[in-house]
Amino acid sequence: MPTVGRSGPYRFFFFGNEGFEPVHVHVQRDRSLAKFWLSPVALASNSGFSAVELRRIQRIVEERRNEFEEAWHGFFNA
Asked: Coil, strand or helix: which one is 26?
């Protein structure tokens, strides 16, 4: 479960067994967890984040999309 970034209280990561899925990133804060597709950036799932917080997180994902995609492709050799 490589961590690919942090921003404030958020940890961005992906699971090592998800290389078969489209490029995405998970984000966690405390017990809240969400998943964002990266191309295009879109919410895939959410458990515990409010709508306001999801918009904040989505802006971070959009700003760091290239960084997250590079980490994905580097890890999965895709």
From this structure: strand
